Structures are given as structure tokens and as C-alpha cells.
Amino acid sequence: MFTCTACLRRAFASTANHALRPHKIPTTLKPFHASTQSRAPHISTYAEAGALAETTGKDATPEQGSENPGVPRLPRVSKSQEWAAEKQLQYLKDPLHIAEYVHKTLGKDHFEEAALVARKASKNTNVAVSWNHLIDYQMRHDKLHAAIKLYNEMKKRAQLPNAQTFTIIFRGLASSSHSKLAVSEAVKIYNTMLASTSRLKPNTIHMNAVLQVCAKAKDIESMFSVAETANDGLRAPNGLTYTTIFNGLRSAAETSARSSLLDLEVRRAKTQAIQRAKAVWEEVLSKWRAGSLIIDEELVCAMGRVLLMGDYHDANSVEALVKQTMMISLDSKPEALKSPEEVKSLNRPNADIPPPLQVDKQKIKAPGAPTISHALPGNNSLSMILVALEKTGKTTNVQQYWYIFTEKRGVVPDADNWHRLLTALQRGKNSWRTALYLGNMPSELMVPKNFRTAMATCLRDNLNHSAFDHATTVLKIMTAKLPNPDVMVLQTYLRVAYASKLCTRKQKKMQDAMTAWGMQLVTAIDNLWKPYMMLTRQYENDGAESDSKQQLMTLARKMIAACDRVIFSTRVPADVKEQMKPKRNRLNGVVVRHFEQMKEIHPNYRPEDEEVEDDEDFMGRFQQRRSMSEKHPAAESR
């Protein structure tokens, strides 16, 4: 046929290239229509996107030279690996033993070896459990694409997925970092299960897992579309169903608040989330009253946290929510939590640390566990009610709720509960009760932020003539409980000493008031001296530019200013002034050395570069802001 050698060579080359060129797979897809499309029309969008990804993905490319073109291309394996896999299968005849071997091999991170055994066993054995292990391994390593490819390969190898397969897939998608892709795949697979005519239909576990995928991605519309597939049978909603919906609504609304949206748009998003949550809550109550749903603490708090995003009326309804679901009300007054001796100890100057309260506790099994009649309170609900009281300003109820939760219902407060308690008391400017509760906090839960909150409460309560005594109690508790004092607490304590000047003037004549205020500054310096020296030793080797050293020097300069006010005061006894001078000189020496070190680092440095706010000027502005906040409470909450 060919008379020329060159022509013959070109003809054979063209034929070989055509044979090696991979065949294209048609990508024409029909839109997927589920049986529930009329209720959730947008789900088809995700189904089409998922189907397109499945068709155009690498797993749909037939293996070159494979007898079954539907089986995806496999990674190249050596003859030794194939021999080892076949040798293993000679001894692993039972599917259970094969699954155990695959699971054990995956535990050693030998994925290719485990996958090869599962693929070879799939020729003549039902090893769906082994494929589940492979899919779960990829999901746990956040390899979403690889897991979905395994799922598709599993079906193409005639290994029918079971209920556990879909549970693993949905659970893995819920924890995936690729949230948008996870929603697309989860909704597509879930919708396929709904439309399938086989006996395997999605159950409540599957539905809840898909809801969690949508909630994590903050795809609220997809979440509600999946929720519409619930029924009274196989997919009956439970507490986790509604908890996931409430958490999804709150997460999406809070994300909009952190974005660059306008305040009006943020308020609109939160209002819409609250309205939707209230509508869902009506369904929850209906099922609860009918006995088809058990309400637990997690569900109650999920709804309550949504309400806390709203205005005063929404936050105020949290108390009604707790009363409705946990049978907790303030109709009866609690027993007294204090003794006369404790009151006297906290009202006398330089009060010592108050003794722990002695109250008999009732033992309650498993706080937070559900019952048929009502939900049992726990740490989560205690924090929620304290946040609600702080937001509404109804801080007079803090003591009663704390007593009911911790003493009558047996809830052991955790670190967050204690912090929420102190924050609520700060809003109520209750320095006395702050010092009392702080003295009874477990030592292992005490952290600097708690003492900062407590000392700030004493500063807010500066019109109370005992506020400085309560601040001194807080200072002594911190010195005794923390390994190292917090410098911010020490600075605030000195400000409390300045702030009490206003209360002293109202109680006494001007001359007596100035004397009392000067002696109060002397007491403050004496109380600060020991923790200041502890911090000096702690930060001795820190650089002059370190934040810790800068904060300590700010405290030292404030203490020098307080010493100067005492020394140059005409109302303070001369012997007291003489006692203050050595401390003032020692503080001044430390500050001067710090300035010299800073000049060595920055030759143009001047002490004026570190502006130290005068505490008396600060208190003037503080009182002005306080009077404005009392006239306009909404401004303070912002």
C-alpha cells in the first residue's frame, strides 16, 4: 500500500497517537429533581453542581487498559504490593476480618496498602465496612475530594453504601474546613438519598449531620430547606435538630455583625434571626407539650443565646425562657448568704480576706441532663442567665439566681460562670458582693481578668464610702492567690483611692475630708508596696522597652504622684509625710534609671514621651461619663 518508508512511518505514528488519546466523557447533565423540590427548589442547584463535579472529576476518567471502563483510574502499584495484598486476602476470607485489617493498616497511616486490599477484595466479596474505614480516614484528614472519590469508586465497584457510610460522609463534611464545597456535596448526596427508590432512606442522624454542615457554612436557606424534609417517621426531629438550627441562625447573624455591613443591616440580620428562632421555638414547645420531644439544657441555651443578640426586651425574655423550661423562678427569696460577722469584716478598713461561705449543697445527678418534665440547669444556662441580667441591668437578681443554681440545683460553677458573675456585679456597681464572692472563688479558677473586673467594680462604686475597703479586700485576695500580681489591677486600685475623695467630701467637712483622703492615699501606697516589689523582682531582667516594664513604670510614676500629694499636703501629719519620703525616693530612683536606659536605646527620647494620666483628672472625666451613662443607659451598653 505504502511504497515510501517515510510515509509508512507517519501512518503508524498517527494511528498510535489516536489510540493513546483518552476518550472524552459527555458532560451533558439533566437537572436533578428530588421528590421534595417543591418545598426546597434551590437544592437542585447544589445537586447540579455536585453532579457536574462528579462527572468532570478525575475519578470519572476510565483506567487505561481496564476491563471495566466505569472503574476510576487507580494509582500505580508495584508487583510486590499486589503480591502482598493478594497474600493477605488468602488468609482474610471473612468481610469482618478484612475490615479489621483495613482499619489496623489505616491506623499505621498506610492508606495505599489498605485501599489496595479493599479494592481487590471488592471483586468477589461485600466489603462495604472496609470502604467506610477508607472514607472515614480521608475525612478525618480533611481530604474532602479524596473521600468523595472513594465514595463514587465504592459504588462503581458494586459495593453498596450502607447507613453508616452516609453517616461517616455527613459527619466528615460537617467538620471539613471547605465549608462551601461541603454544603454542595452534603445537599447533593442527601437529596439523592431522598429521591432513591431503594430501601435506604436518610434518617434523623443523616438529617442532623447535613444541618450541621449548612450551619457551619452559615448557609441558612439550605439549612431550612433540609429541615423541611423532616417528618414524623424516619426523620423525626429531635433536640439536636433544633439546637443546630438555633446555633446556625446565631452564627450567621454574628458573622454579619463582624463584617463591614452597616449598623442598620446588622440589626436587620439579627432581628430576622430572632424572628425565625421564635417561630421555630413555637414548634419546639408544641412537640414538647405533646411528649414527642425532650428539651435539654443545650437546646434551651441555643435559643437563649439567640435572644441575647436582640434588644432589651429580647434579653429580658431569657428569664421567662428559663422559668418555662427549667422551672426556675424568683418567687421565693433565698436564704441569707452572709453572716453579720462577714458584713462587718467587709465594711471595716483594710478588711481581711472573707472566709468561705458555709452552705449545705443538694446533690443532683448529671447537671444539664434532660428529663421528661423539664430541662435540668447546668453551667451553660447559669452563664446565659448572668449575661442576660448584665445586659438588662437587673443585677439585683444575680444573688438569687446564683443561689438557686449553685445551692438548690447543685451546679458547680466553672471559670466562665465566675467571670459572668463578676461582670454582672460590675454592671450593678456592687463592690461589697464582688469582694464577698471573689473570696469564695476556688483558687484554681482565679485569673487576672477576674481581679481586673472586680477592681473595676470598686471603681464604678466610688460613691460608696466602703468602696476603697472592698478594693483593698480584692487586692489582698489577689496577692494571696495569684503567684504574681497583675499590674493593671494595681493601677486601678490607686484610682479607687483617688475616686473615694468625692464620697469623703460629702460625708465630712472640707478640712476633715482632705485629711481623710490624704490618709487614704497613704494606705493605698502601703498596700501597693509589697505587690509592687514582687513585680520589680519579676521584671528585673526584662528590657526597658518591654510591655511589662513599661506598665510597671507607669504604676511607679502614679505612686510617685500619690506620694507627692501626701508630702505636700497641709492636712497630713508631719510624721506620716516623713514615712512616705523614703518610698517616694526609691520609686523615683527606679524611674530615673528606666529613663536613662530608654535614652541609651533612643538618644532623642524624653520622659514627656510617656504621658501618665493624672488620676484626679481621670476621675473628673470618669464622673462625667458616669453621669451621662446613668441618664442614657443604652450608651453605656454600647
What is the number of helices? 28
Q: Measured on Cα atoms, how large is the radius of gyration?
A: 35 Å
SSE pattern: HHHHHHHHHHHHHHHHHHHHHHHHHHHH
User: What's the main sheet like?
Assistant: none
How far is it from the N-terminal to the C-terminal residue, by CA?
92 Å
Fraction of residues in helix: 55-70%
The poorly predicted ranges are: 15-72, 334-351, 356-370, 629-638
Residue-averaged pLDDT: 79
What is the molecular shape?
elongated
Number of strands: 0
Structural class by helix and strand composition = mainly alpha
Strand content: under 5%
Describe this structure in words.
- 66% of the residues lie in helices and 0% in strands.
- Helix 7 runs antiparallel to helix 8.
- It is mainly alpha-helical and 638 residues long.
- Mean pLDDT is 79; it is low at 15-72, 334-351, 356-370 and 629-638.
- It has a domain at 484-638.
Secondary-structure blueprint of this entry?
Elements: H1 5-20, H2 43-56, H3 79-91, H4 95-107, H5 111-121, H6 128-140, H7 144-156, H8 163-174, H9 179-195, H10 204-216, H11 220-227, H12 239-258, H13 263-290, H14 297-307, H15 312-326, H16 340-347, H17 379-392, H18 398-408, H19 415-427, H20 431-439, H21 448-460, H22 467-481, H23 487-507, H24 510-538, H25 547-567, H26 574-601, H27 615-631, H28 633-637
Helix pairs in contact: 2-9, 3-5, 4-5, 4-6, 5-6, 6-7, 6-8, 7-8, 8-9, 8-10, 9-10, 10-11, 10-12, 11-12, 12-13, 12-14, 14-15, 15-17, 17-18, 17-19, 19-20, 19-21, 20-21, 20-22, 21-22, 21-23, 22-23, 23-24, 23-25, 23-27, 24-25, 25-26
